[in-house]
């Protein structure tokens, strides 16, 4: 379906076909093939469906923001405020899931010592092993959410972040480089309560080619702001 057709479908379903769109954007969920055997097929299918639901919700919020009465915005309660909060929640949920799918499930996972990712993680964490330990600790600390390695433009270095839910505890100025889902739905079907074993499994099959591309983008951002 073309983007214009998708936008019209969303508008029609929300009763907005007679209103002009000034801000609405539309995102589309991709289908991901995860060859890993460390996650079951039922888990993969359920996770894909979950991401698609977040994308659907994000598009609905985007369309509603186009017609909401901004003159009624206030801090205690307003439809505009609620929609803006829902926008960030669903935006992060959709794209973090996509980035997670893209950077896991490499059954031939290899990182080389001369790669940008390896060199930067060694520099900012003291050693690659230190980054791994810190990453695992963050993953075990997320109440429901994510562990993410980001480049932070304020600190001008890489750091691991514990993200509760989809939108809490994220430092401003962060560019996402490595993502692992720590919500219970991501591992409970296959690992029950054993999140640590799940985390080690995901890290064993990180897609370092995809991650390397993200690190290279982060380095370009650093050059621009330096």
Q: How is this structure best described in words?
A:
The chain has 226 residues and is mainly alpha-helical. The protein is built from eight helices and three strands, in the order H-H-H-H-H-E-E-E-H-H-H. The protein has helices spanning 3-13, 41-65, 79-102, 116-125, 128-141, 188-191, 195-204, 208-225; strands spanning 145-152, 157-164, 174-181. The protein has a three-stranded antiparallel sheet. Helix 2 (41-65) packs antiparallel against helix 3 (79-102) and helix 4 crosses helix 5 (128-141). The mean pLDDT is 93.
How many beta strands in the DSSP annotation?
3
Give the structural class: mainly alpha
**Mean pLDDT across residues:** 93
The amount of helix comes to 40-55%
CA radius of gyration is: 19 Å
H/E series: HHHHHEEEHHH
Silhouette: globular
Strands of the widest sheet, in order across it, are 2-1-3
Query: Which residue ranges are poorly predicted, with pLDDT under 50 across at least 5 consecutive positions?
Result: none
Taking the sheet with the most strands, its summary is: 3 strands, antiparallel
Number of helices: 8
What distance lies between the first and last C-alpha atoms, to the nearest angstrom? 41 Å
Helix-strand blueprint:
Layout lengths: L2 H11 L27 H25 L13 H24 L13 H10 L2 H14 L3 E8 L4 E8 L9 E8 L6 H4 L3 H10 L3 H18 L1
Antiparallel strand pairs: 1-2, 1-3
Helix pairs in contact: 2-3, 4-5
């Amino acid at each position: 379906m073309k983007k214009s057709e998708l936008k019209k479908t969303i508008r029609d379903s929300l009763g907005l076909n007679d209103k002009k769109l000034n801000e609405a954007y539309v995102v589309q969920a991709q289908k991901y093939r995860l060859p890993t055997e460390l996650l079951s097929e039922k888990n993969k299918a359920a996770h894909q469906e979950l991401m698609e639901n977040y994308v659907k919700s994000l598009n609905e919020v985007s369309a509603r923001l186009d017609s909401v009465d901004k003159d009624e915005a206030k801090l205690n309660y307003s439809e505009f405020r609620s929609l803006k909060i829902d926008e960030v929640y669903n935006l992060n949920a959709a794209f973090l899931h996509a980035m997670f799918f893209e950077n896991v499930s490499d059954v031939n996972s290899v990182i080389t010592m001369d790669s940008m990712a390896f060199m930067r993680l060694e520099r900012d964490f003291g050693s690659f092993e230190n980054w791994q330990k810190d990453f695992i600790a963050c993953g075990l600390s997320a109440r429901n959410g994510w562990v993410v390695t980001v480049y932070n433009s304020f600190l001008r270095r890489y750091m691991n972040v514990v993200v509760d839910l989809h939108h809490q505890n994220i430092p401003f100025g962060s560019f996402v480089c490595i993502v692992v889902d720590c919500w219970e739905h991501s591992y409970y079907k296959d690992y029950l309560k054993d999140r640590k074993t799940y985390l080690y499994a995901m890290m064993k099959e990180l897609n370092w080619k995809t991650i390397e591309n993200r690190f290279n983008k982060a380095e370009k951002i650093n050059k621009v702001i330096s």
